[in-house]
Structure formats: structure tokens, C-alpha cells
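Below is our example:

___
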Amino acid sequence: MAEERPASVDSTLRRSAGTLEFWRDLLLVMVLAIYGLVKGAAFLLPLTFAVLVFVLLVAVIDRIAAIRIGPVQVPIWIAHLAGVMVVLSGFLVIGLILSSQGEQVSEAIPRYAERFDGLASGIVSLIGDENAESLREALAEIDMGGWAVSALSSAQGFLAGLFLVILYVPFMLAERGPMKRKFPIAAPDRKTGLEVRSVVQSISVGLQRYLIVKTFVSVLTGLFSYAIFKPMGLDFAETWAVLAFALNFIPSIGSILGVVLPALVALVQFDTITPFLVIAIGCGTIQFSIGNILEPSITGRSLNLSPFLVILSLTFWTTIWGVAGALLSVPIMVGMLIVFAHVPGLRWLAVLMSRDGQLAVNTRAEAVSEGMRSTQALPDEAMGE
């Protein structure tokens, strides 16, 4: 008599989704998850950043390893060394800029506050006495010192979290090879192990593609912005360039802030409006060209995300984890989209998360088919090596 096969996970999910108990338990899990995200931020934030840095590092290593100089391919150990050097150098540059200019920013706050008050008084005199009082009340509520202290605290928190990120990543790299071998060994059979490994590989490739492209265009944004800030004599040009780089990871709002904030600083710093206009127009042109022309031409449909859900994700993760959550909102959403696209029972969520319903990632069947073709010639023993 044929052995009865257990019901699949997908069919079980479909049956249970129509019950009240399912939605009750789902709501309870969501509430507990949000509570855990808030309370565990000190542990989860560095770990999440470390995962993204690891994915970016793997992407850089794989691309360096694929380089061929004539008939010779770059050795894997050289690719690892070069990839680590590239990513680590980027973090060191950012850390040095933030640490070296943090004290200068704190010293400049009184000067900027005085200059801002004078500028505000000039604006009040232009609009007349009728609107002056309401504007003064609005300006009184603006705490520039508090903003600056908050920004410095965020920078110091970044530097503290950077140590944990640097601590986690080497161990993740060390686990990369063994983890590939663990999937087939842990699976009940060779086919299941191959399926799981192929799906994980497809998810990794999607995240790598997003991070490598986003990091590249963000570096270009920071460099081109710095090319405008420095000749204009803008104070702390390096810090504003790093800020333009980081804000480019925040969808929609990040690009606007990357232009508005340095432009306002120029308006307060200089006596004429010319630097303000140059920075606003120049940086605005850079942000528009990179965000609407260069990046879409590179990514194609690989980030086919719903604009509303992008903003919703931005709001949610900013509420949960602050500025760090804003930086992580889109990478987390991309990862969720890729995972949902590979689980048949959750594929409908991936379709709803997409812009037009067309998923730009391989399905689980396609991933398994590709994985089977790539490992078809391997003997069974090779799966457990």
C-alpha cells in the first residue's frame, strides 16, 4: 500500500486562513513581533545592518572573483581580501568624517543659531506686522540646538553600532561555505535540500543586486554633491556629502532632504543667496538625474515595488527604529518581496507589494530548475561534502 504523504504547508495555510483562530493568532504574533522589534532594537539593528553589509560584501567578492585577466581568473582569496578592503575602507571613511567633524559641528551651532535668528528677523520685516507674530511663534518652536544634538547622537550611535557590525560580518563570512553544505545535510532528501539551497541562492542574488546598485548610485550622489559643496565653501562639506550618500537609501524623502538641508545651511552661512541657489539647483539636478535616469536604467524592473507600500514601509520602520529604520526600510521590503515570491502560499502578497503585479524575481520552480541544472552532474555524496 502506498505511503500516505503529509499535507503540504501551502494547503495547510489555505485551509487555516479561513478560520477566526488563524487571524486571532496572526494578530497576536504581529503585536508581539512589533513589541520585540521595539524592545530589541539595540540587538536587532546592528545585526540587521551586519546582514546587509554581509550581502553587499558577498556581492563585491563574487564580482571581483568573476574578473579574468587573460586566461587567469582572480583567486578566491584575493577576491575576499579585495572585497573586505573595499567595504571596510568605505566604512572607515564615513566613520572618520563623522568623528572628526562632530566637534566642529557642535562648536558651530551657536553661530548658526545667531545667524538663523537674524535671517528670520529679516524675513519677518518683509512680510509685515500682521504675519510677524505667528511666524515668530513658529520659529520659537524650532530648536536648532536640539536638532543638532540629536544628529550628533545618531552619528555617535552609528559609530558604536559599527563596531558590532564589523564584529558580526567576519563570522558570517566564515559560515558562508559551511552553510551551503548544511542545507542538503539538514534536508530530509536530496531534492528538498537542492530546492531550499536554490531558493536561498535566488533570494541572496536579488538582495545583492539591489544593494550593489543602490550603493553605487549613492556613492555617485555623495561624490557629485561634494563636488558642488566644496567649491562653494560650504561648512562641513564632507559631512553633507556623507549625508547625501546615506539619505539616498531612504526612498523619496531622502532625496529631498539631501538637497534641502545643505541648501538651508548655505542660506544661513552666506550673506548672498547665490550659494543657496547653486546648491539647490545643482544638487537637485544630481538627485533627479541619478534617481530618475541612471538608477532605473541599471536596475530595470528589479525593484518593481508599490510606491504606496514603500512610503508605508518607510513610516513603519522609522517609527520602530528611527533614522536607522528609514535607511533599512527599502532593503527589508525588498527582502520580504523576494521571500514571498518564492513561497507559493505567500506569492499573492508579493504581487500586492509590486508596482504592476509583475514580479521581477525568479519563482521557486525556476530557481529549483536552475539549481538542478547546475548540480545535475553532481553525485549524491557531493551534496553532503
Residues 26 and 32 are 10 Å apart (CA to CA). Residues 76-127 form the longest helix (52 residues). DSSP finds 13 helices and two strands in the chain.
